[in-house]
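Q: A reviewer asked whether we had any structural model of the full assembly, not just the individual parts. We don't, so I'm hoping you can provide one. Inputs are below.
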Amino acid sequence: GENVEQHPSTLSVQEGDSAVIKCTYSDSASNYFPWYKQELGKRPQLIIDIRSNVGEKKDQRIAVTLNKTAKHFSLHITETQPEDSAVYFCAATISSYKLIFGSGTRLLVRP
Amino acid sequence: GAVVSQHPSRVICKSGTSVKIECRSLDFQATTMFWYRQFPKKSLMLMATSNEGSKATYEQGVEKDKFLINHASLTLSTLTVTSAHPEDSSFYICSAPPGGRAGVTDTQYFGPGTRLTVL
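A: Here is a predicted structure for the entire assembly that you could use as a starting point for your response.
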């Protein structure tokens, strides 16, 4: 079945610096790759997504890139702010819109 | 954006009792909903797919008689944890991709979660 690996598990950056989180997936049929931000005790919030017919997508300080050949996709956050501190999950869809999640990255932005 | 609610947000029960969790899509229809389980500081694990008007499909290793799912309408799915035990204590979250009978989109919106504690 589909497996999604996510790295790093923790990431600490200085405010203003960039943060990059990387994921790889195993099922070449996957075609939708969302990223979620989850704060402690809260629901995951969709922050950006990308579909397999697109190589890159940007929304203000957040961007996602997808390399279908290598089966990996990455989240880029620029000009990080303390409120960006949270756990970030990547995911990939398999059949019937099911999402398989990565293991999560705990991002800490130091003021 | 689309809104998904869950009820209750928190429940504490005695071992052996059954607990029902509701997941509602408030401003869209959802023929399919998903149930996840999340342990502290861990990722979301897909438990089952809830299908309106038909049986739920369960992921490998998830006991269907333990976790009963009913998708009674296009806006409501329920998860019942039967004969709960302490090891069932977890954060249960549902999600729904907007889509009525005409089709389903792949973007999913999550409910706020239900924290279950079994004593």
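A: Points you may want to mention in the reply: Chain B touches chain A through 22 residues (CB under 8 Å). Residues 21 and 105 of chain B are 24 Å apart (CA to CA).
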